Amino acid sequence: MTHSQTNHAQVNRTTPSSELAKIMAHPESFRLLYFPVEAQGQTSRDLLTYGGANWESASPQNWLEEKDKTPFGCLPVLFINKGDKQVVISETHAVENYLAKHFGLMGDNDYEETMIRAFYCSSVSLFSNFQASVVWNMPEVREKTLAGFKSRQLAHWVKTHERHLLENGNNGHYIGNKMSLADIRTVNLIRHFSFQPYGAELMEIISQAPALIKLRETVESDPKMHQWKNSDEAKKLADSSKAFFANPFAATGKPTA
Amino acid sequence: MTHSQTNHAQVNRTTPSSELAKIMAHPESFRLLYFPVEAQGQTSRDLLTYGGANWESASPQNWLEEKDKTPFGCLPVLFINKGDKQVVISETHAVENYLAKHFGLMGDNDYEETMIRAFYCSSVSLFSNFQASVVWNMPEVREKTLAGFKSRQLAHWVKTHERHLLENGNNGHYIGNKMSLADIRTVNLIRHFSFQPYGAELMEIISQAPALIKLRETVESDPKMHQWKNSDEAKKLADSSKAFFANPFAATGKPTA
């Protein structure tokens, strides 16, 4: 049985949840299954990197065959290993919340955690809205929906986040003076925009928000993140993200809606 | 100062986050600000109801004026009160995560919490996708995107969730034999579909998934939830949700994208 043939039913259900929680609390290694692009997988990769985890990256060999064997028919899937035991978790936000909490990136108390989740969800929502209303929308309306996205959703998000970052002292972080899940997710949202064929238009809007730019520089200049972002693997992921989003319908063979 | 004129900067920043966390841990009462429809506010209302909280509901009087005074320029906003102190939190998922955790609806350990978050996020993602690709999409493509949504995203979500619910013993819950945030969010997603002008088509697909129907019945027949769902206020919210989504563009005066 390979990792990618594992689903919750096979692995998780035979063990009491309290035992699975113990594996999650003291993991020895991780394996992250995701497509060979940044998109919804990159924040998990960054969290594993920032946390100094023992982890490996994997991509599906034949996604259409493997899809139904994953817990939700979607990626990323995270395999959490301890000795001969394993826990499998899925759904982007569940995976990212677990990793962020495990590596101390959810703040120092419940108020900070809630605020981090608020900024995080605001960026996640903008990503989802962008994917559905622009990237995967019908080609005949994409020009109009892109214009609407830029003038409304993106402009509003930039204004709101810029204000919060300035209120926090423009120190490159959303909460206090330390790295959090929200910092990393927002940087990946900005990177995602930069990979689009019309990315220059989106980045032009973001470039007018110096505190957001400072946030990106702060996250990307963290020593572990800097090393990872400059690795051959990370550069390849950035290149293949650009190539994928140049024509996502062609890449997936999906019908155009 | 009315509640709706409060933002994070005014209220939260003058108090150390550890003090704000204490207010959140021992709240005396809540006020939830949201539009007078179900949509993104109903899960918070249900959580407050299920938790037996002392809470009141409020709606903006003039949203365009009040918008910039909220933390993210969006609703719901939750005001958490203890004596003369108050914490203001916003962004749907951050509010819902806090309330669910506070009222014991996030499972018994980190594994259960992660699984609850996975099911929850899967339902939240489907909601977001539906809003962006169908409800708020350009009218000229809505028929096509609705067809695509039904045959792909909705069908896939129903299949995946039905399988998990059956694996959990078809007991009306996602995890173990107790109510969770995921149960409540999924029921509100199904209700949201039922409010759409083409709701019958969507409900026809869901009606073929008996474990999802069982989940809805279980949540809605909980004594506190049953009483709340049958109150005049809740019935009015359901009616106004239907009325709103009959023509959402007309209701908001938004341009059609």
Automatic annotation (TrEMBL), chains A, B:
A Pfam family annotated for this UniProt entry: GST_C_3
Record-annotated GST N-terminal domain positions: 28-107
GST C-terminal domain mapped to chain residues: 109-249
Stored InterPro entries: Glutathione-S-Trfase_C-like, Glutathione-S-Trfase_C_sf, Glutathione_S-Trfase_N, GST_C, GST_superfamily, Thioredoxin-like_sf
Recorded superkingdom: Eukaryota
PANTHER family: GLUTATHIONE S-TRANSFERASE
Name of protein: Glutathione S-transferase
Species per Swiss-Prot/TrEMBL record: Linnemannia gamsii
